[in-house]
Amino acid sequence: MIRIFIIFWVVLVVSVSVLAGPLSKVEKQILAHIDQAEPDAVNLLEKVVNINSGTMNFNGVKKVGDAFSDEYRKLGFSTTWIDGAPFNRAGHLVASYGNSGVRLLLIGHLDTVFAEDSPLQRYHPVSENKVMGPGITDMKGGDVVLLYALKSLHDTGVLDQFSVRVVLTGDEEKRGRPLDIATSALIDAGIWADIAIGFEDGDGDPKTAVISRRSASGWQLDVTGRPAHSSQIFREGYGVGAIYEAARILNQFRETLAGEPNLTFNPGLIVGGTQSDLNTALARGSAFGKNNVIAKTTRVVGDIRALTPEQLARSQAAMKKIVANNLNETTASIRFLDGYPPMAPSDGNRRLLAIYNQISHDLSMGEVSAVDPRKAGAADISFVAEHVEMAMDGLGLMGSGGHTVDETADMSTLKQQTKRAALLFYRLSQTK
Ligand SMILES: [Zn+2]
Fold it and tell me: Residues with Cβ within 5 Å of ion ligand 1?
């Protein structure tokens, strides 16, 4: 009798929990607030998309910052505008809330690639659920997803269960210099945080998120040879000249490193001869040389992208070794320029994706898998990934045509992405 009762009790408990579904009462309240607030979220998106904030339009970037600052203040956040004058950009908005529980750094950006003379300036619906606009997916849509996810937790009364720092940068599309000053607000927040989450549009597909990004930085190769009449080339004391030596170096880069998975390096511009000039800021060069004179100088500029800091360091060391192994009567040096560091795929990042994926299933929104890092460019989160236990990006508003005049949002993903983000913040807040 007792056994039968226990079996009955187990069946009852199991069936009740199946009926209740995978979402808690609080989570259902959070979702209801997001449904309610959707029209406001769309209005805000329209308003900020219609403010031109091309990176070098400092007034516009600040105006978008002010619009978000007002919204964060309504939720009880304290906000600070970090003036961008020291790094020749508009600046960044930092909004903070709470000082207990798990520490979340949430990342967006205010600027777009669309300057004031770009043909794409306005928010305009093109068909059902499709809206075009400058920066609508990259990434004012993501900024709105992030804000409304936090707002739903505020409206449910659970915002106090964790600490948040939101950093909306003003120069993601064209980073200010010096780099260390331009990125210091972001990196400080990364050092403070346990977890960093970015709201870029990733690869535009809500079935994916980004847990690794390759680095992006540059290099400059300078080669010198001994100028002499070309009839003497290859002879002892005359050597091969700067152009042959540059060709050897570039070819050996390719032969030695082109097979490395997730590593790429591209010489983008080369100038050589008796005299050469290369203006890296303008990405232009000029040269003078004659076919009967051994080349005296060659300069090459290129980029390099790697998946992990180790891969980047190892590849740079291999390149330096190749550069140092000079042919007769030549010298060469390579300089690596600063840029975006890699966001390496870590166990922590994979755990964060697993939590997000579970949420997506609980919401009946399907599987979420990791984007191939070859398809994900460097972004703000790259600067903080090494400072946090877990990092993930690409949780913003989805669409297509980013960085072109065809940039179009899929507005059906606005609520979906907001719901997944809100439950992610909430479940993370329950882990500490
Ligand atoms: Zn972006």
Answer: 138-139, 200
**∠ Cα 406 407 412 (to 5°):** 120
Domain 24-213+342-429 sits in CATH 3.40.470.10? no
CA of 324 from ligand 1 middle (Å) equals 38
Q: Could you give the angle at which helices 347-362 and 412-429 cross, rounded to 10 degrees? A: 120
Distance 198 CA to ligand 1 centre (A): 10
Condensed to tens digits (0 to 9), the pLDDT of residues 98-134 reads: 999 999 999 999 999 999 999 999 999 999 999 999 9
**Ligand 1 centroid vs 366 CA: distance in angstroms?**
25
Cβ contacts of 340 within 8 Å, gap of 6 or more: 213, 215, 216, 217, 378, 379, 382, 383
- Tens digits of per-residue pLDDT, 409-418? 999 999 999 9
Q: How far is the CA of 109 from the centre of ligand 1 (A)?
A: 7
pLDDT digits (tens, 9 = 90+) for 284-333: 999 999 999 999 999 999 999 999 999 999 999 999 999 999 999 999 99
Distance 256 CA to ligand 1 centre (A): 33
- Residue range 54-82, pLDDT digits in tens: 999 999 999 999 999 999 999 999 999 99
**What topology is assigned to 217-336 in CATH?**
Alpha-Beta Plaits (3.30.70)
Domain boundaries along the sequence of the chain = 24-213+342-429, 217-336
In contact, 158 and 426? CB cutoff 8 Å: yes
- What pTM was estimated for this model as a whole? 0.87
CA dist 422 and 356 (Å) reads 10
- Strand-pairing partners, residue 264, are 305
